Amino acid sequence: MEVAPETGQRDEVDEIVDQWRQQRPDVSPEPIGVFGRIVRLNIAQRAMLSTVHERHGLTLAAFDVLANLRRSGEPHRKTAGELAESSLLTSGGITFRLDKMEADGLIRRTRSQGDRRVVYAELTELGLAKIDAAFADHLATEERMLELLDPQERAQLVSLMRKLGASIAHSARPAEPSS
Questions:
Q1: What highest taxon heads this organism's lineage (predicted)?
Q2: 29-68 pLDDT per residue, tens
């Protein structure tokens, strides 16, 4: 199906919703209109950004860790536990990534002066330069992905996505027992 995204014409998700309406008229497939598009957009966005990250010699996971350290501010360091918490990965998953990034010279591990049991991962000069270059390219790519939306539409989309996030969180709460 030909799609003209700039005009908001029908897309493949509309076709899926129509098929479900025809095959199961007893249920409303409307949520697919939202969540089907979220899934498709996520797949497309990740594919485009993977290309950007690979151009800088990074995986998505390495980019995530380096960006996490970079946005933490000087001295650009966190413990594996702090990285895991702020990136939603396990500390074991972080440790594996840190080992590779340390071998590549992007981070170094340092021990806390106050408690030698605490080990930090911190950006090296190479890591800082790499994440700064990759992040600029990352943002430019995301900007291109949004170019058909004007500033008002972007703000509206952000607001609606924030509200959707709250709605999902609300729906995940246990239902109150009926009396």
A1: Bacteria
A2: 999 999 999 999 999 999 999 999 999 999 998 999 999 9
